[in-house]
Amino acid sequence: MIPNTMTKPTKKPKPAQPDFADAHKACRTTKEREQLAIFLKARWTEEELHEFARLFHFRNGKDYPTAASYRRAIADLVRHYRILGEIYAHPSDRTRLDREHWWLSQFRKGGSKPLPPRRGGLLQRGRGLSSRVSEEEYAWPYHTEEFRSRIEQQARDYFKIAPEHPVHVNAWAASLRADQRQYWKESEVLRKATEATDFILVPKEAPKGAPRRKLVPQHDDSFWGETLKPHFNFEFAGHTAAFREEVAALARKGKKPDAEVSPLSWKLACHKHYVLIEAAAE
Is-contact 79 92, C-beta < 8 A? Predict the structure, then answer.
């Protein structure tokens, strides 16, 4: 009998699962320890949880995750994954989801290398803030030093803070919000000026045999909800006198020929019979 010299291929050993020893030690309750299983399921590593707690849940003056940092990070991410399971029920929470996914993907793309030690000024937070560092704070780890300096100078100019005095983190955050509002206003002015020339109104019913037209957004988002683009307003600068009278005639249908047409009636008639498309497509 010939001996069987063939051997079964050896199975590759499974990689050891992280035990999250530091995070486990920081937990106070059984419920918190059980929540660590979520990170195993989501395939987080100990290094990733350590860096997340260090960057976004640090205590003032400490460039490392404390026990409280771990507990807050765990609670934060547990809420994140709970929302992930209910994303279709709560679509408004997608922005929050994207934030966690963005950080984790960026951290892994960078080779999972932690950020260098931070200077003392980046380890201070103001009172009354949430446990998690946000983009509006001076301590947000992904602001550049040039950006911090620019916002700091704006805060000094507005609050009249002398160069020898430090700028409080809350004053810096207020200056950042003002800068963002100004940027948004300038962007809106530029967008509307561009759309005023790039978008045109055409009859809603296209001629027979004409190629299908691609419509552009007909509304703007505002604090009060969606509003029609300025092109549908009577006073829009791009309208000719002939076009205004043409839409006014449509608004007078069923009324006296000399009936007065209000700006709102004109706007509704314009929206009923015309649509916006790109001027280049016409």
Answer: no
Q: Where are the domains of the chain?
A: 21-115, 195-281
What are the pLDDT digits (tens) for 212-248? 888 999 999 876 778 999 999 999 999 999 999 999 9
Beta bridge partners of 276: 201
Contact 126, 169 (CB under 8 A): yes
Reported residue count of the chain is 282
The predicted pLDDT at position 91 comes to: 44
Contact 81, 101 (CB under 8 A): no
What does residue 246 show for φ and ψ, rounded to 5 degrees?
Answer: -60, -45
What's the count of helices (H) and strands (E) in the chain, helices before strands?
Answer: 10, 4
Quote the CA–CA distance of 249 and 229 in Å, as a whole number: 21
CA distance 53 to 46: 11
Do the beta carbons of residue 138 and residue 121 sit within 8 Å? yes
259: phi then psi, degrees, rounded to nearest 5: -65, 145
Distances in Å between the Cα of 8 and the Cα atoms of 2, 79, 98, 270 are 17, 46, 46, 78
Alpha helices in the chain (DSSP H): 21-26, 30-35, 37-41, 46-56, 67-85, 94-109, 145-159, 169-198, 241-251, 263-273
Overall pTM surpassing 0.70 (yes/no):
yes
Q: Are 278 and 199 in contact (CB under 8 A)?
A: yes
Q: Counting beta carbons within 10 angstroms of the beta carbon of residue 155, is it exposed (0 to 12), middle (13 to 18) or buried (19 or more)? A: buried
**Could you give phi then psi for residue 58, rounded to 5 degrees?**
-75, 155
User: E strand or H helix at 230, and its extent?
Assistant: none
Q: How far apart are CA 73 and CA 219, in angstroms?
A: 40
